[in-house]
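*Target chain*
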Amino acid sequence: MVGPDGERPPRDRLSLAPDEVLVAGDGALETVVRFETPAHVDPPALADGGGGATRAATGPGGTTVAFEGTAPVAVGFRERAPDPPTVTVPATPTGVATAITHASAALGTLGPERSHPSRRSHPPLVAFGDRDVPAAVARATPETGIELRLPADLSTCSLAAPLAFYLGATVRAEDRSAPVLRVPATGLRRVFPAADAAFADAVSGLLRRVFLLDCLTRDRPGERLAGREVLDRLGLDAARLRSLSPAERLTAHLAAPLDRLDDLPDWPLATYVDGGIRTARCLPHLLDRLSLIHPAAASAIDGDSLLCRALDEFYRGPSPDGDEDGVGRTVRPAPDPSSMRRTEDVVTADRLMPELRDARVHGWLADGTPVEAFTSTPEAYRNRLAAPERDATLDIAVVCNDPEMSDERAVADIYREGAAGLPVDVTVTGSLARGELADLLATPHDFVHYIGHCEGDGLQCRDGFLDVADVDTVRARTFFLNACGSYQQGKRLVSAGSVAGAVTLTTVLNRQAVTVGTAFARLLIHGAGFERALSLARQEILMGSDYAVVGDGTDALAPARDATVLHVTPVADGYEVATELLSGGDPGRSYASPVTGEDRLDGRVSPVTVGRGTLRDLLADRTVPVVYDGRLRRSTDLAATLRPDPDSGD
């Protein structure tokens, strides 16, 4: 049994022996507690902290340490890891290979526990110039005996980076025709395809398989992952694998029949890159998320193709606003042309249809404007590192500069009510002048939700239009410009200091803008990252491809831990329920299934079939987003519609 959002009951509490240390905290400070008598910790530990310490997870209500009686306790605080150091290398394939080799200095362990994000820190940043590797980075760079020998090509180096980083491999760029993975001590040698796309697919496939085996092998206090029987099926022994060196463990992995690993977890992030110096400069940020990396490839898309794609997506599931056509299918109400926003001078972005691989979220670090992927920039990643630590209270500003969109001001209540105990300060303003809006953007805010109109001259104000390029420094960390054709203004906000934001790519309907804005707000305040929140929210409208994210789409507004969305699908014998961890921006996290109570690896979609009554109780006991038969609902609202079935005795 588990509580809302996978919270464990007291019976699963962690026991600590005398002289053990509890380390807790997800913010700028870690709290260190030392005591000499036995104690119980709730929620339980999720990762060993190294050095004999035990690291505890911080739950929604904090961490509780309970003693049998009165006991002396020492409490201290320490800052979390500082900004990553910088490795300077020549702007050549050899230089980039050196930077990738030293990226592995960020691994906190070389054992299978590196599969958990708590054991991977931010890799050193990359600058270009005469070689300069800080002594601390050189000392921390592991020597695993694993080598990746690559053709001397910038693109090949970038595509190899995730696998090299995770394995702790030494990377060499040299005169050769095809990439090779080698372990000289064990005789392992694997040749990869030479073509970029095929090489990226092979690297990603190998990383995902090795990573899954590490997850199933790791030994972390308080975690009992379901699915470990996979190791038996492959003839692998977890205890033996943990005892091996990185090179020996990789050799054992590749000696197993990995083709039987057909149930790979969904990977949180794939990024599509141009493979040049811009990509090389951004590699540390992509590796921080352990993103898969693929070469960017896309085709132009016209209006007819967009409409056909939108219709296909939109009519997949029923709508609460639709009527049945007599044969059980739902007929959705057609968009009302009279609700179209003004179209004069709206800037429409030319869109691309990217060739996407298997991942939950997609990023684009190349030229062009893709649909179904966020468009990032080096500035977005720099802004994220440079952004000050958030205060305990989220600061959100809602601006309504279009009277016809006043219904969307209700998102302020969503931000206030949906934060699940998180302190939130929401201010609502309207009809701002250009100077007032400029001042608001230049003032520190965690999030600015702008509702209004946008043209080539900028964002609509009561005295004209504000081009955000005229704002020297933007201090709004994130934003939503829910206005027609706001893509260019959003990109300028990121260039001037923001980390990420949602925008529109063309003219949008008023009613659909309100629908997306409301759904997006619910998901953001629940803890979803920007791209994942928007990808779910835009499923609510016909032309969802009119919305996109600029900047680092993995950034999240609310630091909700273990925030989940439930995917519910009606089936013949009940309802299939699958859980997605919204805060799982990094691969390797686990969660307690709200249905079975098992510890499950994020991304391993294993739907559980339940009856109507069980589903109703599950939804009524928590406030989480639910994707019901393809459409976004609130759990409590959906629970209220699941009346008892008189024929089943439910």
Q: What stands out?
A: Confidence is low (pLDDT under 50) at residues 1-13, 44-61, 313-343. Residues 360-551 form a domain with the Rossmann fold fold (CATH 3.40.50.1460). Residues 612 and 647 are 12 Å apart (CA to CA). The longest strand covers residues 564-571.
